[in-house]
């Protein structure tokens, strides 16, 4: 595949969708749109992707690591849920390896970071000085709410995860989620909750730990989670982007 001047890393999220539109307006045919299919995201993502293709008048290239079915498969095969630093190893296998192998090292990498994520963009540039990056939403002062409004006006239906109240569109059952998140997953997607709980026991490791109180730092298995634990609305947003890769680079000494 010909590598164009720029590439938009489309995530099936609202912000990356709008960033894709702005990139096309700026670069025309000199920009590629690429989506890393983890296999663990909700099936409504593909409907959203196809709607965005119609909006763009352009195809979106889909990359998939054929070694893994989804994030659960990564956990089973690598026997790793998270690195000691909290880095999600599935992000590395299902997204970063694909991006590294896609051949866009000399292209301008475009990300859908919104105005609220300006510091995140600065961090990315500081740790990847050899990578050409652009953040059109930040440059245009576009917020996350703006992105949702733009898509609504265009008649593009958001993926189901947004409708269910999640502020992200990651894999269903993300290892970065807190107690409130996992209690919500247990209600909305019990099969995914049970699958992760089983994997935890098999690997003898956990995704949850107490963040405060007398049990701060203590870890807990998902099958021990009580309905009253955590507060989903007050938990930090779950990020699953390229900046997650910075941690593993440091661990490698790169």
Describe this structure in words.
With about 250 residues, this protein is an alpha/beta fold. About 45% of the residues lie in helices and about 10% in strands. The protein is built from 11 helices and 7 strands. It has helices at about 15-25, 45-55, 70-80, 90-100, 120-125, 135-140, 145-155, 160-165, 180-190, 190-205, 245-250; strands at about 5-10, 30-35, 60-65, 110, 130-135, 210, 220. The strands form 2 sheets. Strands 3-2-1-4-5 form a 5-stranded parallel sheet, with helices on both faces. A two-stranded antiparallel sheet has the order 6-7. Helix 1 (about 15-25) crosses helix 7 (about 145-155), helix 3 (about 70-80) crosses helix 4 and helix 9 packs across helix 10.
Radius of gyration, in angstroms, nearest whole number: 18 Å
Identify low-pLDDT runs: 244-254
| Order of neighbouring strands in the sheet with most strands | 3-2-1-4-5
Structural class: alpha/beta
Q: pLDDT average, as an integer?
A: 88
Strand content: 5-15%
How many domains make up the coordinates? Answer: 2
User: What is the CATH C-level name of the largest domain?
Assistant: Alpha Beta
Counting H and I runs of at least 4 residues, what is the number of helices?
11
Instruction: Tell me the helix content.
Output: 40-55%
Q: How is the biggest beta sheet arranged?
A: 5 strands, parallel
Shape estimate: globular
CATH topology of the largest domain: Rossmann fold
- Say which CATH homologous superfamily of the largest domain is assigned: HUPs
Order of helices and strands: EHEHEHHEHEHHHHHEEH
Quickly give the CATH architecture of the largest domain: 3-Layer(aba) Sandwich
Spatial gap, N to C terminus = 28 Å
Q: Would you report the number of β strands?
A: 7
């Amino acid at each position: 595949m010909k590598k164009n001047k720029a590439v938009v890393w489309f995530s099936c999220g609202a912000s990356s969708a709008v960033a894709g539109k702005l990139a096309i307006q700026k670069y025309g045919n000199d920009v590629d749109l690429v989506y890393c299919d983890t296999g663990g995201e909700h099936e409504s993502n593909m409907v959203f992707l196809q709607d965005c293709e119609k909006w763009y008048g352009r195809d979106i290239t889909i990359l998939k690591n054929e070694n893994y079915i989804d994030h659960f498969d990564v956990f089973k095969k690598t026997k790793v849920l998270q690195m000691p630093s909290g880095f999600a190893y599935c992000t590395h296998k299902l997204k970063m390896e694909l991006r590294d192998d896609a051949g866009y090292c000399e292209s301008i990498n475009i990300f859908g970071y919104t105005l609220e994520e300006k510091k995140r963009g600065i961090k990315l540039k500081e740790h990847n000085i050899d990578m050409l990056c652009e953040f059109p939403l930040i440059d245009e002062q576009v917020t996350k709410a703006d992105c949702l409004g733009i898509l609504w006006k265009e008649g593009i239906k958001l993926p189901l995860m947004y409708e269910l109240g999640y502020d992200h569109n990651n894999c269903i059952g993300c290892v970065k989620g807190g107690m409130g998140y996992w209690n919500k997953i247990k209600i909305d997607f019990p099969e995914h909750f049970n699958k992760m709980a089983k994997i935890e026991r098999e690997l003898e490791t956990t995704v949850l730990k107490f963040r405060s109180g007398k049990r701060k730092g203590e870890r807990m298995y998902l099958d021990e989670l009580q309905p009253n634990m955590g507060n989903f609305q007050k938990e930090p947003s779950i990020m699953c982007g390229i900046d997650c890769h910075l941690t593993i680079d440091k661990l490698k000494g790169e």
